[in-house]
Design a protein that fits this description.
The chain is mostly beta strands and about 170 residues long. It is about 5% helix and about 60% strand. The longest helix has 12 residues. The protein starts with a helix and ends in a 5-residue tail after the last strand.
């Protein structure tokens, strides 16, 4: 009886079932926790990026930031101008841009705020852009709604592509 049982297990273990492994396209070279990255231009601070989790892909020079992404932006005089928060973001080291996604808020030091689902910060142009729906709260506490937005980083020179809403005339 034991002989048949042993023979049964040997035959089962010799089966030829092969599983084709799918190549992983999204492999990252480095993983980091509680990261802080300083972006500089000619020695001047442009942005301070903080995130709970970072994945880096050396092949395409891309960083994926997740869990509580905060990007502090600075002007040419090294003064803090605004803070971008989001659920996750992608940093392109090649293009010098940050794409933020999920509950994106831009809070300028002058009190103006932008709320949207996605945002692009172009470091070279020193501007922020979105094609998504948005809510913008101006310094006068006027609330504007629309789709599409372009502004400098301190939200003082902004344009809503397709605006809608009302303005307080007081």
């Amino acid at each position: 009886m034991n002989y048949y049982l042993i023979l049964f297990f040997i035959l089962i273990s010799c089966s030829r079932s092969y599983q084709v492994e799918e190549p992983l396209d999204d492999i990252h070279d480095q993983l980091s926790v509680d990261v802080e990255i300083t972006l500089t231009e000619q020695g001047n601070i442009k942005a301070l990026i903080k995130s709970k989790f970072l994945e880096r892909n050396n092949e395409n020079l891309e960083l994926r930031l997740t869990d509580e992404v905060n990007v502090d932006l600075y002007n040419d005089s090294y003064q803090h101008t605004s803070l971008i928060t989001s659920n996750y973001a992608f940093v392109s080291e090649k293009e010098n841009k940050i794409n933020a996604f999920g509950d994106v808020v831009v809070a300028a030091d002058n009190g103006q705020q932008l709320w949207t689902d996605s945002l692009l910060w172009d470091n070279k142009a020193d501007k922020i852009f979105t094609d998504a729906s948005l809510t913008f709260i101006s310094g006068n506490f006027d609330t504007l709604y629309g789709t599409g937005f372009e502004s400098n980083i301190d939200l003082t020179n902004w344009k809503i592509t397709k605006p809608r809403g009302s303005i307080n005339n007081e």
